[in-house]
Design goal:
Elements (H helix, E strand, L loop, with lengths): L2 E6 L7 H13 L6 H13 L22 H4 L4 E5 L4 H14 L3 E4 L4 E3 L7 E5 L5 E2 L3 H9 L9 E6 L4 E7 L2 E10 L2 E9 L7 E5 L4 E5 L6 H12 L8 E5 L6
Antiparallel strand pairs: 1-2, 1-3, 3-4, 5-6, 5-7, 7-8, 8-9, 9-10, 10-13, 11-12
Helix pairs in contact: 5-6
Length: 252
């Protein structure tokens, strides 16, 4: 069974759920190819030849599950079938090439929507989900809003290629956020808190069948989490509007 992705020309809705609905509508609509899709086809087959151009003894080395592949790009929405053993290699390349042409990639298996404005230096991972390279700020914020301490996901991590990361746990308006930053071979790890709130007593934040113990001032609301995710995505320093408790020593 193949691994299928779809590629479309913007505009699409900013909300991912609405974008998936728009995709299904676009697939059913008649129409011809877009120049950007044809250009993507040419770039991809230069790297991964169409099955129709391979000799019989080379077919097993092909990455596409059907051909001729150009037929897929002659539609308003290009639907590509990829051989599953080659998915980890091929999908990131398709996404990168599509992004340079301002195209959007939909992955049915992971339900990820790869948008040209996404940041390829960041990877978003939700508890129980596949890693998502290149999220937008909006997608990271939507992921935090989807956290649910009762049935999950209970946490998310956004990691930069530098190794720095921010992680959020909780849900239903009660979150805890940690921020790690590397300096050469060492790192510093902090918990975000709110100024002006007592910070001596401990409390728990539920995280999908478990909990995190923090201080009372370290229980954050959704707006605070959104601000922290945006700041991390912008590669900015930890915002001073928050209190930061250094817990690096806990990681030995």
């Amino acid at each position: 069974m193949s691994y299928d992705i779809a590629i479309v020309v913007p505009p699409i809705p900013e909300d991912d759920a609405a974008a998936w609905s728009a995709l299904e509508t676009a697939i059913a609509m008649p129409g011809g190819a877009h120049a950007s899709l044809l250009e993507l086809h040419d770039r991809l087959v230069r790297r991964y030849p169409c099955l129709s151009t391979l000799r019989d003894d080379d077919l097993e080395a092909g990455v596409w599950a059907s051909g001729p592949i150009r037929v897929a790009f002659e539609q308003p929405v290009a639907v590509l079938a990829i051989q599953r053993p080659r998915v980890a290699e091929v999908v990131p390349i398709v996404v990168d090439e599509a992004s340079t042409l301002c195209l959007v990639v939909f992955d049915w298996q992971t339900r990820h929507v790869y948008r040209p404005e996404g940041d390829s230096t960041l990877t978003l991972t939700l508890e129980g989900g596949a890693a998502f390279r290149g999220p937008t700020k909006r997608q990271m914020i939507a992921a935090s809003a989807a956290l649910d301490p009762d049935c999950g996901p209970g946490f998310l991590i956004v990691e930069a290629t530098s190794g720095d990361y921010i992680q959020v746990a909780g849900g239903n308006g009660r979150y805890v956020c940690e921020w790690r930053q590397y300096r050469d071979e060492r790192f510093e790890h902090w918990v975000a808190g709110v100024h002006g709130v007592p910070d001596k007593r401990e409390t728990r934040v539920a995280t999908n069948g478990a909990h995190v113990t923090v201080r009372e001032n370290e229980v954050l609301g959704g707006a605070a989490v959104q601000a922290l995710l945006e700041t991390f995505a912008e590669k900015s320093d930890r915002p001073r509007r928050f209190h930061w408790r250094d817990i690096s020593a806990q990681f030995g």
